[in-house]
Structure formats: C-alpha cells, structure tokens
Write the structure tokens for this entry.
Amino acid sequence: MTAEEKKKLALFLDITDDRLRDGYKRFREAYQFSDDAAPASSGDPEAPYLNGFLAEADTLETVAGLIRLCTACSLHRDRSQAVPGEGVSQPLVLVVGEGPGADEDLTGRPFVGKAGQLLDRMLASIGLFRDKNCFIANVVKCRSPNNREPLPEEAAACGPFLARQIAILKPRVILSAGRIAAQALLETAASLGSLRGRFTEYKGIPLLPTYHPSALLRDESKKRPAWEDLKLLRVKLSELDQTYAGEAAGGTP
C-alpha cells in the first residue's frame, strides 16, 4: 500500500469517526506514512488484510473505502465508481454476482439494472430483501470494458476484498449468481450446469450456485430451474432457523 493510499484511508476513517461522534471535524496532527515493502507471497488471499494498519480497521465501511481507492488492476482506469456492495451487516444470505454493469458503474450500487430488478423480485419471492436480510456483492468491484468477463488477474486482485467481506458478514448462506461467481468462490473450472441445483460450501458456509439474472432475461427456459434453486435456498434457511433456535434453547432441534 502506498503512502498516499494510507493517507487517504486515514482521512476517510477520521471523517467517519467525526460523523459518528457529533459531526464536527477535529484537529489532528499531519499523518506521516511510508510505502509498504512488497509483501512476500503467502498463497493466502486474505494476507494483505491481516497485518497492522489494515487489521485494526477491518469493517465493512473500511473495506468499502479500500475498494474505492484500489488501483490493483486495470479496471480502475475506466470506472465511474467502484461498487463495494450493499445490504445489512448480518445477512441471512450473501448474493455474489460477477461484476458491475453500466447502471452499477454510474450509481455505485450493485444489481440496479434490469438484471438487478429481476434479482430483487426473485429474492422477494422467498422473503429476502437487500435492505432487511441480504447483502449483495460481486466478484470484481469495477465494471469490465463492454461488460466482458473479468480476467483471472482482475478477479484475483478483488479476491481479498470479497474474502474479507464474507469474513465480516458471516452470512448463513451464500447464493452465487452465474458461472463466474461460482467458479471464483469454489476455485473450480467446473461448469455452472454441474454445480447448480445442490449445496456445496465456502469455508464452512453453505453455498448454492444458480443462474445469473441476466441469463434468465436472455433465456426464459432457465427460469424454472432457477426457481427450483430458490426453493432449495428457502428450505436450507428454514433448516438453519431450526438449528439456531435449538442452539439458543440449549439443545438440538
């Protein structure tokens, strides 16, 4: 992380602190930062977020601030806005898509175009809403040129951000929308057809791959299997509700 990026992040945190306290800006001494040395490769996608400066400020808001400052891949050059994600801080379901489109790039919000409107209707059909019990995010946080698929190096650059969001959110279930999201989360090259329709896991969290809403807009024949996936999700959430209730009561369901 460069000294300039550290300074921007520190200022962002100071502003957030002032607003949460009473809205008044406080005087602070000028920050003095230096560029980080190139980190040794550990093979751990979360490693950049587990040391000193960043580990102390690991919240959804801080990760969002880092995403907006990120220049780790070429996608930042043409973005209007980065799109960190949105939703509740303790979601039942985390929905992970591929990446922002044109509408998302302009608004800084995930899934707000036609595909996003369809996603909202799909989730609502089983009692899920982004402002009540879901969080919506993407594999990459900046729009790809002409909405092409993210390149491997682009997905890898954003990987630590998504990993930290999942670690902070601790969703009960992850719903991956589309092939790119499923492959990124499961670290597989398997086809979506071979993955959807059943639960697997991401670091102990149940994960259900399904079609991306944009695929349903292009091919209505996929709507029926997508609905079957949603029913599986609803059943899983009901099972987890019973488990949580049993644990709260000090017994087993």
In short: The chain has a mean pLDDT of 86. The radius of gyration is 19 Å. Strands lie at 86-87, 93-97, 134-138, 173-177, 200-202, 205-210.
